[in-house]
Amino acid sequence: MDMFSDPALWLPFVFAGLMGLSILIYVVLDGFDLGVGLLFPFANEGEKDRMIGSIGPFWDANETWLVLAVGLLLVAFPAAHGAILTALYLPVAVMLIGLILRGVAFEFRAKAPPEWKRLWNRAFFAGSLMTSMSQGFMLGMYVMGLTWTLPHVAFALLTAAFLTVGYSFIGATWVIHKSDGLLQLKAIDWAKGGVWGLVLGIGAVSAATPYVSVRIFDKWFSWPEALYLAPLPLLSAALVVGLWVALRRMPFDRDRRSWLPFAMATGLWATAFGGMAYSFYPYVVPEKLTIYEAASAPESLFIILVGTVVVLPTILGYSILAFTIFRGKARELRYD
User: Fold this and answer.
1) Which residues contact 38 (CB under 8 A, 6 or more apart)?
2) Distance between CA atoms of 62 and 265, rounded to whole angstroms?
């Protein structure tokens, strides 16, 4: 039977795709504003104000993609939602505390008296660090099958560190695009160091994933699948080389193509995410629940799909509008 003639087959597939797209957009968009917070200790007070100004119009909308992804997981794959959150309850709680701390610090630092501003800057960094580390830890545990053993926790701590460096890297590429002068030169140096942390993180996850199960190993190393998949690692390697060359040559004359490192970093995240999605499909809980086993009833999914068709373009349209209106170099974020 053709897959698309049976709603019980194509609806879970569509929702898995929508959820994956939401997660990817979140990782890129909220990744750069988390990265800006992670870079706070390396900037002076004036530079911090400009860095905050570079994410001010976007950070709230960026987090909407996380809400959408978790919402889709809850309504489309409730069994998987329960299994994943049960296994990752502690890091999820840490992430939520970090997000709350970031939000409060973001608003208060711009309005607080000078003697309190430093405290809120530290709180903004702490919230960014808690959020990125917890997300990296959850990624590592997910790759390892959501089972709490000492080796799995050790791997999750490693991915937590690498994802944090990866976020700081994409944050640095964003600052390159949104700033000029001495701050831009600093951001170029930050990105030169951070790119290797991102490469090591992608390499660690890519190397570990095929050894989680025989099924995943066969998906990558059987013939002719290995030949068909060869463009993915080759494209990733080309993007890494392109990033390094671009960063060494920056700043370009008259600041042309300052967007290029951010665009290539986004492409690198997308290839890494695509590889992981291919590895785990059709499982939504690794080696335990497929998207078809965890999915809600087709009737429920169809109703949810109607709502998603309205909500998703609205969020996407708002994001595009915000990036269009607030294009160009950032200024200090002020409320007076």
Assistant:
1) 125, 128, 129, 132, 164, 167, 168, 171
2) 17
Residue with tokens 């089972």: 147
Q: Which helix (H) or strand (E) element contains residue 267? A: helix 260-280
E strands present in the chain: 283-285, 289-290
Among the listed residues 137, 135, 144, the one whose alpha carbon sits nearest the alpha carbon of residue 63: 135
pTM: 0.90
Judge whether 201 and 163 are in contact, CB under 8 Å.
Answer: yes
pLDDT in tens, 19-29: 999 999 999 98
Both tokens of 93, joined, read 């709680």
Q: Is 285 helix (H, G, I), strand (E, B) or coil?
A: strand
The structure tokens listed for 304 are 């949810």
Q: Where are the domains of the chain?
A: 10-325
- pLDDT tens string 75-104: 899 999 989 989 999 999 999 999 999 989
| DSSP letter string, 96-113 | HHHHHHHHHHHHHHHHS-
